[in-house]
Give the backbone structure.
Amino acid sequence: MQNKAKFQDKNTGDKKIRIWDLPTRIYHWLQLVLVVSALGTGFFAPEWWLSIHVWLGYGIVALLVFRLAWGFFGPEYSRFSSFIFSPKILIAHVKAIKAGKPMHFFGHNPLGALMVFALIAVLALISLSGFINYGGVENLGAFAGFVDYATGSSAGKIHLFLAFSLIAMILFHIFGVMFESKISKSSLTKSMIDGDKSVPEGENTPSLAPKLLVPAVISIAGLGIVLIGGSIFMSKVPASGFINMPISQTYNSECGDCHIVYHPSLLPKKSWVILMDELEDHFGEDAYLDDETAKEILAYLTSFSAENWDSEAANNLLIVDKEKPTQISATPYWKLRHAKIDEDIFKAKPINSEANCEACHGDAKTGRFDDVNIKILKAKDKTN
Amino acid sequence: MRKLLVILSLFIFIPAMVANAGPREDILAEFAAQAKADDANFAGFDANRGKELYLATFNTGKPETPSCTSCHSTSATNAGETRAGKAIDPIAVSKTPDRFTDPKKVAKWFRRNCKSVIGRECTALEKGDFTTYMISQ
């Protein structure tokens, strides 16, 4: 095994050495693809791409699991132990660069090694904060049953901050690679593709520790089982943002005759009280109900008003418009989230109005309003 | 032969009598009684007046709903749509057979919709004419 790593280039006769084995190289480029895709979907894709973004996150976690195992049981230069440098060497390395006489390292140089550890740490934290955000705010994924909205929301802010940090680090990484390639007169990018580096004149070919495939596979499988099994197990816990709500036939039929049956969590208690008090002037129509029916519906709505839920919609719709406290589409949150949608789309058939949540939110009835369930209908009337 | 005629006539009249005693007729009868109480000269309901009422445009109700046809289709036999986008079954009895059979529903919707469209509750005469028109459609 060891000797296979060293060989002579057929064309140039240069002494070459295999630094990055195939799994490490595949890992590197796959990670590039997944991270760029995750950043792209995170920053630019519409809400309903969220499930793709999350799957990219699962992919990144899988890569990190491999990298962790390979960091202990991979071949020489993939092992963490091969690129943990003392501060002394780090300082010497920087000084040598400044002096224009860079030191030679076969694997990661001390500065590059710092970046590798930082990237792995940030990717791990970005994944964790992402899944906590997904669980707390969206009430989906492994953390749905364990994280409340406020925590999930904070995790989302950390996730965003880490994403910006990651972009900065990637730029630094690319700069470092270009710089090192220039001063070492060998393309680091090329060696991450073919895996090889030249052995400089006068440099001894190092003895290389081989990969330990069995422990590597066992630890990948072990970590995989723990993560996948744990996630599945945790996902069984019902989402913490939602409570059990009985179905009210009275509410469903009396209110649902004219419009979609709005989930009681979509307005605060005080708004429902006002709304039920003003039924004779109900959004431009008379929607009078006899006292008994109105009382029953009011009790139902106020028992399950926004205050009683920890969902994304309920948390944000607590703040209503001062002038129109009963209109969900007048709330600041509703306006913010629908700001990018053309008004014509709302007016077009079969949507008709902002009041028709179900037209685009397939799960409106449940009060979930998951990003992944948004489907913006094409405005059919627009061209007519 | 006479026997046969009697049996035949039973087949014709019994179903007619049963139909006459249906909930729709009860509702109409109640409108008629009220109409008579309102105006001693009441001489029955008229589908044509009902049709006029259905198609009329008012400016006394809520501006969003100036006419019955704002939500119900301009034809009683077509499906309509609420302002919020929910489909409304055709109001004509021939298309939606259970129309005007539940007195509670009839009272609820006449009250709401007359107030929305006309700005007041409808008279028994208007309700009766309207119902008669829808039965004829």
